[in-house]
Design a protein that fits this description.
With 671 residues, the chain is of the alpha+beta class. It has three domains: 199 residues, no CATH class; 134 residues, no CATH class; 153 residues, 2-Layer Sandwich (Heat Shock Protein 90), CATH 3.30.565. Helix 1 packs across helix 14 and helix 17 runs parallel beside helix 18. The two termini are 57 Å apart. Bound molecules: adenosine-5'-diphosphate (ADP). The site of adenosine-5'-diphosphate has 20 residues, from helix 18 and helix 19.
């Protein structure tokens, strides 16, 4: 039974508890993952908005600039600068990249001189500038081949994976205008194929791993990210993508020393350091202005001048000349920062970071924040190299606190589970154990009763037989036989009475109560048993402490109680054959004590002996027959009379059974 209980209840409960505790341990990681997925979607959206805003900036600059052939471009450019706050230093190039404006002679102001010294070589097509390229676009053919190979598989997977991992942000998001990228991208590609490659790359960690691997083999240089997102490597990205980040892990250190776009780190560089942040999605290449300009009519060229990023706008005029400007950093940042609508919420802080990891807009309540350690972040795209959309937890410890409280709840539940399983289990087991013990006792009871019935019947029929066959027996012998037969009959009667009493519905027993003197009843019992007991070597005496001990009782029932106790005193006496019936009284109660010098009752059994069927030694080999009902019935009768039966060890050995009944009024007349 215990084993079944352990197998069916305890083992599953322990398993359940272990699982719950393990999940409690993972609570923080799970919550972090949820939070990361939510914030990732928001950051992706913001990155898309920023990319789109770049397109609008280009549109605004284009609409304000018109240099008809043969016009005085110096004046037109000066007017353009005054009219458009975005224009910092306008320039004009001949179709063959000769710098027409600003003039390099004495007419040039300090600003123009600085501009020319920084950009002159590039604008005259002599030096190349670094340009970012989306790795998914660079390896577009490989990605599409990969994706179509696993087409059916990918079709199924894209739904589930796509739901969890939002598309990587990049400038070619549907809202981003083609112009903004055309400036920084190599040979134009079919837009749908491009987008398909970008999507396939974003959705498949295995494609990401392969592409990064290939980039590493080819010696590609990945853009260096300015941030170390905390959640993305562990939760937002797949483990494969995160492992691909290993190759850029060393990037950070070098990035800190020099502008990465100017001196990028080869993607092939292997690092033993564990990856923390996901790798950049952009490969760094370098292009001459003529290469960039061959890809479209206008665009925006981000250029690193030392640590600083400057943005050059250009537009090819009808006559082949190129007009453009260096964009005013302040106005440009203001425009891009304008896409941020809500930077602060109780849950997260959202902002855009520039190439140095500084926020474009500083949300309130963010003093002392490490902007380079966002919770999640996304690169904005080719037009804004190293710029990131980044989200931070408003209270970084809130996830841990929430996880702590929910794992506390799980622990409490596990405790409750244990207490209830242990408590309930103990109750069930003890009930079952009690039931089975009772069933066993009942079975023994049946054996005992039949044995008890048979023994007196056998001796009665033996004596009847003797008397019948030996008619000439002396009178003393006859008397002896008859008294033995009478005592066996009495024993039978008592046994049958006990069994009947026990099986009778307790409420159904009717007592004919009247005022009796307990001393009288005790005296009658002593007299009726004296001959028999003395013939068996017992010394029986009656001790009366008071002249009268009145009680209200059914005399027959009271006799049954005393006979049961006396019979036990006889049965459980070995050597010491001395029995005393003592009657005493005080103002409240009357006690009749049956004292023997028998085998005694161990302390642990002194209460149990009153339970039905309970016997201290139930083996037939104990030599004493019994049903385990005598004391049960004696106590039941005493309690029905408002009293009780208890037992105690007798001084000098043996047992005292004490029947205590409420004393009746002395003045009350006998009924
Ligand atoms: P039984 O028919 O077994 O005597 P009882 O209910 O009268 O049933 O007694 C229950 C058990 O209490 C006995 O089996 C015996 O072990 C113990 N007992 C009762 N009276 C005495 C006594 N006077 N001395 C020692 N043990 C006793």
């Amino acid at each position: 039974m215990g084993i079944i209980f352990i197998a069916a209840v305890i083992v599953p409960s322990i398993l359940l508890a272990v699982l719950s505790i393990r999940s409690a341990g993972r609570e923080e990681a799970w919550m972090e993952k949820q939070m990361s997925a939510t914030l990732d979607a928001e950051v992706t959206h913001t990155a898309g908005l920023a990319g789109a805003e770049v397109g609008r900036v280009i549109d605004d600059l284009r609409s304000g600039l018109d240099v008809p052939p043969g016009s005085d471009y110096g004046r037109i450019l000066a007017r353009w600068k005054t009219a458009t706050s975005l224009v910092a230093v306008p320039f004009m190039l001949s179709p063959r990249y000769g710098i027409l404006w600003p003039p390099s002679d004495a007419r040039a102001g300090a600003e123009e001189k600085r501009f020319l010294s920084e950009n002159g070589a590039f604008l005259s097509d002599r030096t190349a500038t670094t340009v970012l390229q989306n790795i998914a676009v660079k390896y577009q053919n490989e990605i599409l081949a990969d994706a179509s190979l696993a087409k059916s598989k990918a079709a199924r997977r894209s739904e589930s994976v796509g739901a969890e991992a939002p598309a990587q942000p990049e400038n070619a998001a549907p809202v981003a205008p083609a112009e903004s990228e055309s400036a920084a991208l190599p040979a134009a590609t079919v837009p749908e194929a491009r987008q398909m490659a970008i999507d396939a790359f974003a959705q498949s960690p295995s494609i990401q791993t392969r592409v990064y691997e290939e980039a590493r083999e080819k010696g590609d240089q990945l853009n260096a990210r300015v941030v170390e997102p905390m959640a993305m490597a562990s939760a937002g990205q797949s483990s494969e993508a995160a492992s691909a980040g290993a190759m850029t892990a060393a990037l950070k250190d070098e990035a800190a020393k020099s502008p990465p776009a100017a001196k990028p780190v080869p993607a092939a560089k292997k690092s033993a350091a564990p990856a923390k942040e996901p790798p950049s999605q952009f490969v760094v290449t370098s292009q001459l202005l003529s290469q960039i300009a061959s890809q479209g009519d206008s665009g925006l060229i981000p250029r690193f001048i030392g640590e600083k990023l400057v943005f050059l706008f250009w537009e090819r005029q009808k006559d082949g000349r190129i007009a453009g400007c260096e964009i005013s950093a302040g106005a440009f940042r203001g425009r891009i920062a304008g896409v941020l609508t809500s930077t602060w919420s109780p849950v997260r802080v959202l902002t855009l970071l520039d190439e140095n990891g500084a926020p474009l807009a500083t949300p309130p309540d963010t003093t002392g924040r490490d902007w380079r350690r966002p919770f999640v972040a996304r690169e904005i795209g080719e037009a804004l190299p190293r710029w990131e959309a980044a989200a931070y937890l408003t209270r970084p410890d809130s996830i841990a606190a929430q996880a702590r409280s929910s794992s506390l709840v799980i622990w409490i539940m596990v405790m409750i589970l244990f207490v209830s399983v242990a408590g309930g289990g103990t109750m069930v087991l003890s009930t079952v154990y009690g039931e089975s013990r009772l069933a066993q006792q009942k079975a023994t009871f049946v054996t005992n009763v039949s044995h008890e019935l048979k023994t007196p019947l056998t001796s009665i029929s033996l004596f009847v037989d003797l008397l019948r066959r030996k008619g000439h027996l002396p009178q003393t012998k006859k008397d002896q036989y008859l008294s033995l037969m009478a005592s066996e009959t009495e024993r039978l009667t008592r046994l049958i009475n006990n069994v009947l009493d026990f099986s009778r519905d307790r409420e159904a027993r009717r007592y004919s109560m009247r005022r009796v003197d307990a001393s009288d009843v005790a005296g009658q019992i002593v007299e009726s048993q004296r001959v028999r007991l003395e013939s068996r070597g017992f010394q029986l005496s009656l001790e009366l402490a008071a002249l009268e001990a009145p009680v209200r009782a059914d005399p027959e029932a009271l006799k049954q109680v005393l006979l049961n106790l006396l019979s036990n005193a006889e049965k459980y006496s070995a050597e010491g054959k001395e029995i005393v019936l003592a009657v005493a009284r005080d103002s409240q109660s009357v006690t009749i004590t049956v004292r023997d010098r028998g085998i005694g009752i161990p302390e642990k059994d002194r209460e149990r002996v009153f339970r039905e069927f309970y016997r201290v030694d139930d083996s037939l080999s104990s030599g004493v027959q019994g049903t385990g009902l005598g004391l049960t019935i004696a106590r039941r009768i005493a309690r029905d009379h408002g009293g009780d039966v208890t037992c105690a060890p007798r001084d000098g050995g043996g047992t005292d059974f004490i029947v205590r009944l409420p004393a009746a009024d002395m003045e009350e007349a006998p009924a």
